[in-house]
Amino acid sequence: MGLFLASQEPAVRVYTSSAVITQLQRGFTYRKSLDQMAWTALHETQSGAQAMTQDWLNRREHGAGIVELQLGNGPSNALSPGLLQDFAQQIAELDASEAVEVILIGSPFKAFSVGTDSSQNSDAFKTALDTALITLFSCQTPTIAVVNGDIHGPGLSLILTCDDRIGVTKSGYSYDGVHSGLEMSAVETVLVNQMLDQNVLRRLALTGQTIGPVAARNYGIIDIVAEDQEDLWMYALREAKAYAALAPDRFSKTKTCIRAHTLNLMRSAAG
Prior knowledge:
ClpP/crotonase-like_dom_sf, isomerase activity, isomerase, Enoyl-CoA_hydra/iso
């Protein structure tokens, strides 16, 4: 569950300042409320964004040790072996950095991650996906999925490994393998069976239907539903600040304890 309930959020009054121009040049805008620290990141694709391998991953600094790893394989953020391998590497590097307090997983595009189809039914893709899922699930740094749009299949499995998941209205969630022919990997199969209620998984996987954010919240796929993109990032960064305030060693020990069983099953499935 999220550390803040959306229904309990107070109205936020915002103003802009000269700092907005500086932050906009980095690809997002900060707005500061008059009575509390509430940050909103408004994403735009900027030519000056920090480029990473193949330009399909970008890092965004949000201050206070909060770092966003942004999926940049536009416009659909379809996953591939190379992207997943680089994603796992970046998560491992961020987790090892003492300067990083919280990791956000986001997307600058309309979709969070769709478009992965049966063309990825290869051993290389499944191995890369398994590695990415295990790396993110075992990450000792708090992780938050900031789901700004539609998400399906392996993209949906990625966010299930995160500690906190925030979605937005006008987004859809699905496992559409019965339609697309996309197969689940061994580790992915273990993950969804451990993280989702069996009746929820049965309904999603065997019908391939897309559900909305309210149903996704009720099913435990996401924790908070934001009204729009501004609210999405306000909630995401407020959640991140709450996680950053926790003692890292206590968080790590607790996370390791509650995830040990599932993690062992995932690693066994990977072989």
